[in-house]
């Protein structure tokens, strides 16, 4: 009888733990600024934030505002991995892109080894795109669950 209770308890704990999930976002920011003067990095937050602390509900009857400040959202505890810029003085550097691919692959491989599952990837480019466009980034977000 004791064995049945122990096994049932263990199965219950495992099933409760299996339903709990964490989400983690890793972001790579790669500079597309001409002449290689931009900054490129992989960013990995090392602390969590509760979105509810920064959320307010607004209706016609009640204009309740959250009392937190924008500065409260900032995270100072994060991991920053250097990447190379897409451009240098001579133009686009395919070696830099290959190097970034290798570093990003290493980070993603480590995340998988740590038990995270890659569930979604999204990317975008931000650039002025005007006649004198001298700024821009290529950003990719890797979304994991555990």
Features:
146 residues; alpha+beta; five-stranded antiparallel β-sheet
Number of strands: 7
Radius of gyration: 22 Å
Shape from CA axes? flat
Record the strand order, biggest sheet: 3-2-1-7-6
Structural class: alpha+beta
Question: Can you tell me the residue ranges where pLDDT is under 50 for at least 5 consecutive residues?
Answer: none
Give the termini separation: 34 Å
Rounded mean pLDDT is: 82
Fraction of residues in helices? 25-40%
Q: How would you characterize the largest beta sheet?
A: 5 strands, antiparallel
User: SSE string, helix = H, strand = E?
Assistant: HEEHEEEHEE
Oligomerization state: single chain
Count of helix runs: 3
**Beta-strand residue fraction:** 25-35%
Layout: helices, strands, pairs:
Elements: H1 2-19, E1 23-31, E2 40-45, H2 70-73, E3 78-83, E4 87-88, E5 91-92, H3 94-113, E6 117-127, E7 136-145
What's the short version?
With 146 residues, the protein is of the alpha+beta class.
């Amino acid at each position: 009888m004791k064995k049945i209770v122990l096994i049932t308890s263990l199965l219950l704990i495992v099933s409760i733990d299996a339903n709990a999930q964490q989400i983690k976002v890793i972001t790579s920011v790669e500079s597309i600024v001409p002449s290689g003067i931009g900054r490129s990095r992989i960013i990995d937050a090392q602390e969590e934030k509760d979105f509810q602390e920064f959320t307010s509900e607004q209706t016609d009857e009640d204009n309740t505002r959250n009392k937190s400040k924008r500065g409260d959202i900032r995270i100072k505890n994060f991991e920053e991995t250097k990447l190379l810029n897409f451009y240098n003085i001579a133009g686009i550097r395919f070696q830099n892109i290959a190097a970034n691919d290798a570093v990003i692959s290493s980070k993603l491989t480590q995340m998988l080894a740590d038990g995270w599952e890659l569930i979604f990837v999204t990317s975008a480019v931000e650039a002025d795109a005007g006649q004198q466009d001298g700024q821009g980034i290529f950003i990719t977000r890797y979304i994991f669950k555990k």
